[in-house]
Design goal:
This protein has 207 residues and is mainly beta. It has one domain: Sortase, Chain: A. It is built from one helix and ten strands. The chain has an eight-stranded mixed beta barrel with strand order 1-2-3-4-9-10-8-7. A two-stranded antiparallel sheet has the order 5-6. Strand 5 and strand 6 form a beta hairpin. The protein is globular, with a radius of gyration of 17 Å.
Length: 207
């Protein structure tokens, strides 16, 4: 459907993205996540399954993302589509963008956020994304005042010409989150990175 091609097309100077950026002590979130609270109003009738009882929220635009393990906090803007059908990208190192044709974070399905690894020689909002680990959390503040807390399931890196479109944008049976940025080698001729780093996460708590 829509790959993240072009995520670094406007990057003028590549950063050395080999050094560690994780914090020894992650930044604490503003408030601890509450106990899981499934939203039964949006549950689809059918056989009982673990996914059917997973938490989810009604639609509400995301306004801020926090990644405690990386010390990252960023406001969130809307991203749509370019004329060629590719996803828009944020206009600078910050903010992060939410692809507004995907579910809002906390709704059933994969919410998609994109951010730059660097911008004009400075680290971008998703500079350290490749260093996230399983069980790290990502916290999304929403416009209705609710908070969606996601747990990282896996981190992958794929060549841009082999982007896992179905895994990123395809239907899923729970509230998920995908964080996308650039990675891999930097092509001096095109001014672009060759890969995408993708974080897959699942909603674990709402508040």
């Amino acid at each position: 459907m829509f790959a993240a091609a072009g995520m670094a097309a406007v990057v003028l100077l590549p950063q050395d993205i080999s050094g560690p950026v994780r914090l020894d002590v992650p930044v604490a979130v503003d408030a601890a996540p509450v106990t899981l609270t499934p939203d039964t109003s949006t549950r689809v009738p059918g056989p009982t399954s673990p996914a059917a009882h997973s938490p989810r929220l009604p639609a509400s635009d995301p306004v801020r993302v926090r990644i405690p393990a990386l010390g990252v906090t960023s406001r969130i803007m809307h991203l749509g589509l370019e004329r060629d059908g590719s996803m828009e990208v944020p206009p600078g190192a910050y903010p992060v963008g939410w692809y507004d044709r995907s579910p809002t974070p906390g709704q059933l399905g994969p919410a998609v956020l994109a951010g730059h690894v660097d911008w004009e020689g400075e680290p971008g909002a998703f500079y350290g994304l490749r260093e996230l680990r399983v069980a790290d959390i990502v916290v999304i503040d929403r416009a209705d005042g609710t908070v969606a807390t996601f747990r990282v399931d896996r981190v992958e890196e794929h060549p841009k010409d082999d982007f896992p479109t179905k895994d990123v944008y395809g239907d899923i049976d729970h509230a998920g989150l995908r964080l996308i940025t650039c990675g891999g080698a930097f092509d001096e001729d095109t001014g672009d990175y060759l890969d995408n780093v993708i974080v897959f996460a699942s909603l674990t708590a709402t508040g």
